[in-house]
Amino acid sequence: MRNPLKRFQRAAAESATVGDLLSGASPGRVQSVGRMQVLPLLARDAPTAELGDPAQLVIATGDYGTLSFRNDGGGPALVPSHLAVMVSQAAQDHAMPRATLVAAGAELSYRFAMCIQQSQGGLISSGSHRLAVLPPALREAASLLPAKPGYDRLWPAVSRFKASAGLPGSADLVRFMKHFATELDRFTAEFECVEDQIGAVVLMDGAVVGVERAPSHAYWRSMWEPLIRFCYGAEAVRRGVAGDSPANLSTRVPLTRPVAGGDGAGGDGADVLALLADAVRDADAREQRAVETVAGVTADESVVVGVDEAIDGIAVGTVVGDGLMGAYALDGDTPVYASLTARNTLELSATPA
Fold first, then answer.
1. Cα torsion 340, 342, 345, 349: sign
2. Which residue from 109, 166, 248, 305 lies 20 to 30 Å from 56 (Cα-Cα)?
3. Of 312, 339, 28, which Cα lies nearest the Cα of 213?
4. CA separation for the pair 149, 170 (Å, rounded)
5. Which of 198, 204, 139 has its CA nearest to residue 340?
6. CA–CA distance from 257 to each of 260, 266, 277, 279, 312 (Å)?
7. Could you report the per-residue pLDDT of 1-26, keeping only the tens digit for each?
8. Whole-angstrom Cα distance, residue 1 to residue 29?
């Protein structure tokens, strides 16, 4: 899977493919744990851009449904799509429905944010906070909502997401994260952010659930835990708790038991170890091909992209396709960011108000 460079026109609506948004990124070695697989996307010769560090943004809530971002950097900062701010203080946590930009040295008040902790009152104090990304089903629900004020408009989807994991009650996403903290921590430990990585194609049960491409390796490192733990890890945990059986395991290749000697006779220990090493390499290679094949099909999927706003040559907008939706960013006419989530991972899309 190699993604050629495409130049974009920065139009209100433009046809593209998912692969066009990955602009030159190359696949790394697949990582597989349980039902989840991560295919790293490496920069190599792909275009990159310095769009700040999300972890360095100064974030607060000035009112319910309003997230403020202060960018103390020297260039525009990209607020990633579906960012969630979960704090330890007594304050109601919030999330973003889309991506946005903050000019250098400026502060942005985003009035279309959503509360994700119904039972908790209070405003988030100004500072650097631990970041998260909404789970896939909530990302789709948020993307389908109109861009207008309404702090409680994601609550129905949050409640249904929790209930699908056996946690009824109010729309409190933090309760889900705390209840399954041990399981979520494992995802951070079991998957590795590799050198030169700027993104990933994430599969679950053999199907793509997300496509991520960051503007730089440093940006990707900041978003690694928010994505692996809170977004995709949360979905894997939810499926396990809900008892969902994997519908497709075609991208997982079992290890074939090695047999020493052509007639099946056993050999010495060195022979067995050598055969085992060969079997592991063969299984890894077949699994790599299987995952890249699925990722390649996704890369060929058609999407419609449109620019929503631009600052200092950087544009950000939305991406909508039959199977994926999310956000992207351009540096000039070149894509340098994409964050796409699979549609219909769970039937809980919030009804637009």
1. positive
2. 305
3. 339
4. 21
5. 139
6. 10, 13, 11, 7, 58
7. 556 667 787 777 889 999 999 989 99
8. 12
What is the CB neighbour count within 10 angstroms for residue 235? 26
Check if the beta carbon of residue 267 is closer than 8 Å to that of residue 260: yes
Residues 6+ apart with CB under 8 A from 170: 118, 119, 155, 159
Structure tokens at 41: 């996307």
pTM over 0.85: yes
Q: Give the C-alpha separation, 318 to 304, whole Å.
A: 8
Cβ atoms within 10 Å of 204's Cβ, excluding its own: 23
Of all helices (H) and strands (E), which one includes residue 149?
none
User: Residue 193 and residue 178: Cα distance in Å, rounded?
Assistant: 24
- Is the Cβ–Cβ distance between 113 and 66 less than 8 Å? yes
Residue 352 has pLDDT above 50, yes or no: no
The answer to whether residue 46 scores a pLDDT higher than 50 is yes
Q: Which pLDDT score is estimated for 315?
A: 96
- Lowest-pLDDT choice from 5-14, 151-160, 249-258: 249-258
Report how far residue 281's alpha carbon sits from residue 91's, in angstroms, rounded to the nearest whole number. 50
Encoded amino acid at 297, one letter: V
- Residue type, position 298, single letter: T
Q: Which two tokens stand for residue 108?
A: 């942005």
- Amino acid 327 reads A
